[in-house]
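To: structure subgroup
Subject: Chain for Friday's discussion

All,

I'm putting the inputs and outputs inline so they're searchable in the archive.
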Amino acid sequence: MVECEKGEKMDYINFSVTESKPIKDKDFKEFDVRVLLSGQQMIPAIFNAVEVMAAHNFKFAEFDLFTCSCGVPGCAGFQSPIVQKIKDNKVHWIFPDEGDYKTDKLEYVFDAEQFFDAFKNLINLILRKESNREFLTSNIDWLSVDEEEGAFKSEKEAYSINDNLEYAQNRFKEEEEFHLFLSEKESELYNKSFLISYNGEKYGHKISFDWLINAIINYEKPKDKDEYYENILLAIKSIKESLLGNNTLLERTTADFYRDLDGSVGFLSRWFNVFPENQDEIKIDIDFKKLSIDLV
């Protein structure tokens, strides 16, 4: 722990880098980043560099700290994101309670100045190493698709952390606006968790308010921003009515957003394939009359 100006004990974050190792038949080397929280090194997994770097200065962000060499965090066992909130010169990292990250606690609170300095130093170090043809493991494409043969082949090409940073930052900007809107319009439900049920059977995982909203509107983002926020408000209203026992609006709203899909495939499909009558994740025929929501 470190002590800030007001004498308050705070967590702190640091980074270290592994030794750069040569890659066979390539003119560059690879290295990785280790994350230390209040002096304790986290598990030695592949640092999800672009996403973490892009997210670190947003007031709200959800990101995967680590990933797999294929680029999919879930493939490496990280199923739920870290939630970042910045307020009153403090940075909060809230880890999923599933325990994927094996941290000593679920929430770390960093002094913002120390936090941003640590990231600034890390970014500068990564860029210096890139100038010497040393690249992060997560910034090396280990596999690519052979278009002629339609198969994977070993590629091992490296790219700079700056190549995809702007794209990731724009995505986090949209998400931050979405969360700020939710927290302003429905502060009472914003920090709540929910369980979704189908035909009386509850889905086993807790669902956050923002995920529930996205599920109802099928993560659809019209080009017209006003229409998008109108859709969110409609979803909020349907949730509130469902919690009071009236699922009519929830049924109608959700069905509308899934109407044009083949067999109701969409954002909800990742949940409903767990139910016995919907084992086909590719095509799921959902009866929205059987859909209901409960507070955890």
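Points worth raising on Friday:
Residues 273-282 have pLDDT under 50 and may be disordered.
Residues 2-143+152-164 form one domain.

D.
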